[in-house]
Amino acid sequence: MATMVQSFFPYIHIILDALWVTIALSIAGFSLGFGIGALLLFLRTFSNRVVARAIDGFIDVIRGIPLLVMLFLIFYGFPALGFQIPNMLAAALGMGILSGAYQSQIFRSLLHSVSSSQYESSLAIGLSRWESFRYVIFPQVLRLSIPALINEYTILLKDTSVAYAIGVTEMFTQSVHVSQVIMSFTYPLLFVSAIYLTICFSLSSLANHLYRKLSYGYSIREHIGG
Amino acid sequence: MLGLDILIENWQILLKALGYSLLVSLFSFILGFALASLFTVVRLFSSFKVPKWAVRAYVETFRGTPMMVQLFFIYYASPAIGINLSPFQASVIAFALNSAAYQSEYLRAGLMSVPKTQYEAAESLGLSKWGAVFSVVLPVGLRASLSSLGNEFVALFKYSSIASFVTLPELFYVARYIAAGSFRYLEMYTVLAIIYVVIGFALSKTFRKVERFFYVPGLMD
After folding, report:
1. Does domain A2-223 have CATH number 2.40.50.140?
2. Residue B14 located in a structural domain
3. Quick check: B57 contacting A, CB < 8 Å?
4. Low-confidence residues in chain B, pLDDT < 50
5. Which residues contact B52 (CB under 8 A, 6 or more apart)?
6. Which residues does UniProt assign to the signal peptide (chain B) (predicted)?
7. A186 interfaces chain B, CB cutoff of 8 Å
8. Is the complex ipTM more than 0.95?
């Protein structure tokens, strides 16, 4: 057993180097998802019933696609349409689209906690629809959705491991490669588990802390009602 | 029609593969539910500290690491200690262990939404502690966690696609095989995405029905 641990030591840096790929990929996917989620929320809030229903349907369909299928669709399917995408970009794109659908749901579930009179008053003082969304409604929704967004990020961070399927050399992929070299999966997988766990656990503790803090100080929901 | 002939040509193997996907999800969901129930009872009603901590550590560990890592660990690392699992067994075990952590969170949230006064009222009527838990708290709390459990099943079904990495011939594995054989990647993966979406919708509709079946007006508000 001890010799197996020792045989793993020389390869640790390969896994640690790939941690940055994992983090970069998760941040890229999250940011793209944030943009898509906010855009979907804007479109959904200020469009008529039919368009809103169409957007809801679109979100439901996207959420029904497994990440693995999404990645393969983009990485292996898109070249048939004429564009070839590098695997890292395909992974970020696939994760971003899926996360966008989830993030728009997060925003939507918190939208009702911002009173509709705020939107009416911001229109009354002469802001455009976009401006009232951008400067009045969305900041409040965003503030309340921070804990849920942090949780969404931890989901993305864990899901980067699926990018193994299209050959992105992120942390999990590298741990599998190392395992194949030293012919033992035990220690490399335990090692990456520990890294994932440390990051996810700290982030979810932070999310819980913020959740308590943010819901405590939030006056609009308590005084005006949604 | 785009992709339709792929579906017609291969519907038999795809159907069989769908069966595998559903079976893995169902088995791991049920096994996960059994484990999760045990965990939840320990977490909420046990008077001992050590098992509570153990369950908490379990839940945090399995929620804090990717399912891919868990699956690979169970399938590829278990032979080192002399356990050889078939792809199906490994997938079911990995998914069940993972799902148990999530399900126990949903169950806990559901049970905690039962007002404490109900428990107190049951005790004051003369029910024992476990009597109150089983005939008052559980029937109400389980109903409250039904919708999250339904979502968990659908999530499990979608995630069962990663079982292809341990060579389980489920939907994704078979689709990949067909796509590689025919060079029609775009069509095959589009069809695959549609299959997942349609089955996922059907599953969540079914769970909505189950929820409505157990719904008691005025029970939770």
Report:
1. no
2. yes
3. no
4. none
5. B42, B43, B46
6. none
7. yes
8. no
